[in-house]
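Backbone-to-sequence.
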């Protein structure tokens, strides 16, 4: 799919002019690279926003029309407003047909539902990478790289060097590096639930204490303890009162005599 986007030269620079452009529905940007100096440009926000919503726009050679002068470019960076969802700035790079470019292209995963790991073993596909660094000539740039998961069982993985890349496309890797792209795993939550259920079944129901059984025993113990304490407090006082009364009566009789 070919994309062409229109731009205009931008003379004013700085925070103030850029803010005024955005209020007018325009997006400030920069075009750089090649044998030409950097050029300040501006775009219509609506057109640019719609193009950015298309995945292919991010990994394609684009035609940039700057006031009638067309050239081949790549989208290199763009900034979005943190909560308004508006494009704040965009950068494009000129490309030459005879020079290799370094790009990130999206990965498309296929046939996971047909794999033995998912279809027969209850696993699920875990996407470790969602895009791939590649180098190629502009004409060889793919829109995406497909990752076939159809032959994987649980525990199997696909690595970068296993991918079938288009002709002229090379992955950007360090020596000896071969990162995992995707793997088939068993969902952790399902495994934990199964283990908990198995542990519960292993304990006989008769050995599990219930609240109804424990409550009467605890109540009886509390009542017994309460009765013992009450007897200790009341009995001495009851025994002391008659003795105290008898001693007082004897003392009164002696005084009268």
């Amino acid at each position: 799919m070919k994309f062409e986007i229109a731009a205009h030269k931008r003379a004013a620079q700085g925070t103030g002019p850029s803010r005024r452009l955005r209020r007018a529905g325009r997006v400030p940007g920069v075009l750089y690279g090649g044998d030409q100096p950097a050029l300040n440009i501006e775009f219509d926000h609506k057109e640019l926003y719609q193009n950015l919503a298309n995945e292919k726009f991010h990994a394609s050679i684009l035609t940039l029309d700057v006031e009638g002068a067309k050239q081949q470019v790549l989208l290199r960076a763009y900034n979005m407003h943190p909560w308004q969802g508006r494009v704040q700035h965009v950068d494009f790079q000129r490309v030459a047909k005879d020079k290799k470019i370094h790009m990130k292209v999206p990965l498309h995963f296929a046939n996971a539902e047909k794999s033995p790991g998912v279809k027969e073993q209850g696993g699920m596909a875990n996407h470790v990478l969602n895009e791939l660094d590649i180098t190629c000539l502009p004409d060889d740039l793919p829109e995406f790289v497909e990752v076939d998961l159809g032959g994987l069982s649980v525990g199997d993985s696909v690595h970068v060097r296993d991918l079938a890349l288009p002709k002229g496309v090379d992955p950007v890797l360090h020596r000896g590096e071969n990162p995992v792209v995707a793997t088939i795993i068993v969902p952790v939550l399902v495994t934990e639930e199964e283990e908990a259920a198995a542990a519960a079944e292993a304990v006989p129901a008769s050995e599990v204490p219930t609240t109804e059984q424990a409550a009467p025993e605890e109540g009886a113990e509390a009542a017994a303890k309460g009765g013992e304490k009450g007897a200790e407090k009341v009995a001495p006082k009851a025994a002391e009162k008659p003795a105290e009364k008898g001693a007082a009566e004897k003392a009164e009789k002696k005084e009268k005599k």
